[in-house]
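agent: user wants the structure for TolC family protein from Gelidibacter salicanalis. delegating to structure tool.
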Amino acid sequence: MKKSILIVFALVAITSQAQVKKWTLKECVAYALENNISVKQSQLDLKLTDIENLQAVGNFLPDVSMSANASENTGLSFNPVTNNAQTTTFFSASGRLNVGYTIFNGLRNFREVQRAKISKMSAQYRLTKMEDDISLFVANNYLQVILNKANLEVLTSQNTVTNDQMQRTQDLVDAGVLPQGDLLEIRATDAGEKQAIVNAENAVQVSLISLAQLLLIKDYQNFDIEDEGYDIVDEGISDKDVYEIIGSAKENRAEIKIAEKSVDLAEKDVQIAKSANYPTLSAFFGYDTRYTDAASFINTIDPNNPIVTREIGVVQETGQSVIGEFPNSVPMLVGADPFVDQLYQNDGISYGLSLNIPILNGFSTKGNIQRSKINLERTQNQLEQAQLDLESTVYQAYVDVKGALKSYEAAQSALESQELAYDYAKERYDVGLTNAFDFSQSKVRFDNSKIELNRAKYDYIFKLKVLELYFGIPALELKF
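agent: tool returned. relaying tokens verbatim.
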């Protein structure tokens, strides 16, 4: 029963290990672009430009606002409808609708829409640059893991050879053919190689953890990469003229586009600042109405005595009085009209144009214009500096690729030479013509040449991909 349980657990462990996903370089880059915090921040910056564009377009729409107030008045107050002073308690309310529209403000609204579009393009280029930087960083870390794995494989393979040689030496020592010192030398070599293997295993694990952290993957133990199928793939970039690569970089690289858009933004800022020198013409429309529940006095004809006679004058020649008849009106208290009736009875409309001509504002406008012009000149200098920096960087990357290729070719030649020397030393050692120390030294040189070849290979691959990225090949389309 216990054996069955152990077998089940063993099968589960083997199955879980077999299901560990091995990430390819493209998968790592794609995952990083989707989850990296810096990329997410750049994406948020891009979203902010949408809000900027929305506000700029909204400047072409009229400003519409409504207001209302209600109050309870006690004591001597003015009736808001009749405008008569009354000593009473009454409720009153009023409402107003205001519409304003800017007809002309020195083309400021048009400039701000144009600026918002440029700002969006600049944010898009910043996002592209961030994605390129992250892709390159991921690729560098990925190749570092592959390099560490390749070095571990070299050390493990050579230690297997050492163990076989140690067993053979043991047999020769037991037969009295070789001295005991040769066996001790081989054992010392084996111990040193095992220590190097442990260090190489730690290097692999540390580089895997570093890559996982870059990708924001927390399951370090089950994280691994696909370490096969990666070789030197040259799309012909190393055969191109360096100035062709520099020209392509200036046309395609995001850092140049960002600097160019900064100049465009500064030019728009100058135009926007100058718009403050022009008059501003705006239109307005207002509608208001009032309501009150206060009773009021009105003059009405006395039904009991509708006509009264009054002296209206005297005939000068005769002194006779002139009598006239007049309606006999008396004040009468009446209640408030219905709410709906008062809304249209007491409403009012106002509309017109407003012209604001700037004359003097303490040189504020002039200062803003001068400040914007200085910023424009600064961004133009930054664009020129960005072009010079890119040219220098691309030229350095081109030289690095050439140097890395020579280093890789030299490492290949060195490996071939060290392999011949190792084979020769092994043959001499097997027949007893050389001692274990000389043989181990030859083996160490052979192992180091393999490790150096791995380093040169992946260093060349990385620098080659950097140059291709500057040439304009998208990060996700780089071939390894």
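agent: one observation worth passing along. DSSP finds ten helices and ten strands in the chain.
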